[in-house]
Design goal:
Order of helices and strands of chain A: HHEHHEEH
Oligomer: homodimer
Distance between the termini of chain A: 49 Å
Structural class of chain A: mainly alpha
Strand content of chain A: 5-15%
Number of strands of chain A: 3
Radius of gyration of chain A: 19 Å
Number of helices of chain A: 5
Low-confidence stretches of chain A: 6-15
Strand order of the largest sheet of chain A: 1-3-2
DNA sequence: CGGTATCCAAAAGGATACTG
DNA sequence: CAGTATCCTTTTGGATACCG
């Protein structure tokens, strides 16, 4: 199996992208990444996810969860009680995806100092050029 | 090392996010993912990348490459010739990052049928509900 | 509580023209 | 060729109000 950016497959109308890229974008979306990582710890309620992630609007969290549920990564368990209680958890497929995403997140956290240092070098080099 | 979405660290003005999330977003950005995957195969010129990725504007490719270069993931080699020739390649840091990203991409490609099937189930279930 | 609907601001992204 | 600059459209995302 080759992983290549050129594995495209635009539809006839040219308005969307191949499923592969689309799913990849769901998994790597701003809030999708964080939801998957958070749910690795176990089942969480809507409000728990909201607090855990922080700075995510209800709208975006709802939207993200619906997309991930439709793709089969997240299971939604809505209890028919008042007040409502809805628990979200990873499916087996979602757990696999979350492992990959968490791997990337973990690596990033681990290497963050290297990135910060690289930026300083980059900015310094450009500042010197500008004053010449 | 804990990987958690709650590892936030907003600045005092509340206008940006912690470096960790920011770098993660660079790596998981729409075009960033594809550039990293494409450069795993080796050094490529600007126009080669553009063709390989497809449907990316010059502006976005330029922007993406600059961000990845500043973060220390991509090396830019501009030959001082006419016409200009600029080659992009992964740094060692970038190679590590690209491995993680490629792992996710590979998994997605591998499981794409599961996702498509999950969507059909989801859409069917909702269609039935709507007609009740 | 866990959403949905609507509106609006901000950011991403594309098209085009131009340059060294 | 590999950009930069500008303009414009589309998408994203937040705030608010409301509902079961």
């Amino acid at each position: 199996m080759s992983v290549s950016a050129s594995n495209v497959n635009w539809n006839t109308a040219g308005e969307a992208m191949c499923p592969y890229r689309l799913v990849l974008e769901h998994l790597t979306s701003r809030w999708g990444v964080l939801v998957l990582i958070e749910l690795r710890e176990g089942s969480k309620r809507f409000s728990e996810l909201r607090r855990a992630i922080g700075r995510v609007s209800e709208k975006m969290l709802t939207q993200t969860l619906q997309i991930l549920e439709r793709d089969g990564f997240v299971h939604r368990d809505a209890k028919p009680i008042i007040p409502p209680r809805v628990d979200y958890s990873l499916t087996e497929l979602g757990r696999e995806a979350a492992e990959q995403v968490a791997g990337l997140a973990k690596w990033t956290e681990h290497r963050i100092q290297n990135v910060i240092h690289a930026r300083e070098q980059y900015d310094k080099a450009r500042a010197e050029k500008a004053s010449s």
